[in-house]
Input
Amino acid sequence: MAQIVLDQVRKSYGDVEVVKELSLTIHHGEFVVLVGPSGCGKSTTLRMVAGLEDVSAGTIRIGDKDVTQLEPKDRNIAMVFQNYALYPHKTVYENLAFGLRMRKAPAAEIVQQVKWAAEVLGIEHLLDRKPRQLSGGQMQRVSLGRALVRRPDAFLLDEPLSNLDAKLRVHMREEIGALHKRVETSMIYVTHDQVEAMTLGDRIVVMHQGYVQQVGTPLEVYDHPRNRFVAGFIGAPEMNFVEGEVTRIDGTPVFQTSGLRVNLPGEQWSKVQGPVVLGVRPEHLSIQDSGEISARVNLIEQLGAQTLLLCDVGEGIRLRVLSGREDRMRGDMPCRITVNTQKMHLFDRSNGNSLLPT
Output
């Protein structure tokens, strides 16, 4: 195991800066997920840690060693790619053993390491097969095993589940989480899928346009997003956003806009006034006869155990409401919505920063 430290790391291609002064520490044995939309700099960051991209500025340390200028082979890290990168003419055993043979490891060690990795991943029965005889999930296990046999200081995983179907992605996600607990090695995992980030990471790093937007545990980031981008990117279904302003009515702060008015109880909103964006997650809205918001059901999405309602409120305002299984609602039916005011967020309309005191 080794601690990985990125200190004011930058990456530029000519005049285009794709990673902008990133500082981050991944602790011994920690599973950290870099998440964000395409082009945010997450894969470039991972490739800099691996040594596959040069660092324009800053330093990278793995353990007690400065690896900023070292070749990938000298960093003792293992990388798992999206496309598996298996040798099609070699058996699973030969694919697993290849890296050890290139490092001139003793034959007995190669046998021992391959056997251990195959047992950990449950692929002992596949050792004599070639990649064309494997399913997508089996190929991904072999790809993980090839990294595992080296006993690296850190695993770097670059969107390893992107090529799998939805059901297999869930299964492999569980296997990667179990693998991390078993080997207790530092892992950096890159994905654009916020569900993978939430379910796998000890901490998640949300990136956007080359900047780190927020670092924290999954629930910290979910419950206390630092800005509107993080609030909208993390969570499914997506958070509802409504532009309006905060005024005072009889001394009480009130959020209001066309067709929507919500009281803001509690001390945290006492100093807020003027143009804002209200944010509230679909699960923090509910359909109740006594609800303070008048709405009309536009669309119903049955999710099995839950129901997602898209409700029109006022002019151009649509709220997503996530509830338990809801059979009584129909399209174009009037309804009333209640807001859990303890779970609301307000964001500065100009810069998107959260107005909720930390």
